[in-house]
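Sanity check. The docking grid for pantoate depends on where the pocket ends up, so I'm generating a full predicted complex first rather than guessing from homology. Inputs follow.
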Amino acid sequence: MRTTAELQAWSDSCRKQDRSIAMVPTMGALHEGHLSLVDAAKAKADAIVVSIFVNPTQFGPGEDFDAYPRTEASDLAKLEGHGVEVVFAPNAAQMYPDGFATSISVGGPSMGLETDFRPHFFAGVATVVAKLLLAARPHYAFFGEKDYQQLLVVRRMTRDLNIGTEIVGNPTVREADGLALSSRNAYLDADARQKAARLPAVLKHVIVSLEAGAPTETALADGRAALERNGFDVDYLSLCDAETLGAPIPGHSRRLLVAARLGSTRLIDNMPVAAGA
Ligand code: PAF
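Predicted complex below; grid placement will be based on this.
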């Protein structure tokens, strides 16, 4: 399906038949992480729609919009057998016709972290996700916890705008050595790929220190130094409240989030941390 009109008509007919709809928004270059979202969606709803759209408005100048892998034929093959009813793969003119002039700005969980380094990012994500949800009107939409801040921003936006879709977060899928699956892992050469596994290993190490009661500043400084020793340029390594991404609150669950670059490849990851005293 290429047009929003077709998607809206499909959604209307599902709803008329009382079939529940789940959507999995993606930018394609599908991997096991995406397929786990599709399978979780299938377990929850009757009719599944996957969108594939490399959204230009969430890339800043000098970012990898042109290089981002576009692999529609193999994406469609990977979705075979996963019970997907519709793949919505619009072009940019369909999503952003001439004269398009709207951008959704989300506060709250979008403050800091990614926004400090990619200030354009969440307005691009919130706007395209709102358009997708309003066209497909799914009962549920599934997002990976790998993009944890994105998950919270989309959830906030969906609630604030009364879109009526339940946003479901699914656990990160990892390679055997712990590296979180990401379409951008394709940019890593063999040496960088080997080094990349240090990222989740360092996160785990920092979490062990934090949960053993080490002062936050010390644990984070040690973690940052360990990443730098392994060749990473660290954008941030931060401990946040898991629900708001504000400062940790005693007794609330926490999340450790990282963004770090290996050469020109930027990796992000995050893990849960038990509530602190
Ligand atoms: O996570 C992604 O792949 C994208 O940010 C999303 C949610 C599909 C919006 O373009």
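Relevant for the grid: The radius of gyration is 19 Å.
Also worth noting: The CA atoms of residues 51 and 88 lie 5 Å apart.
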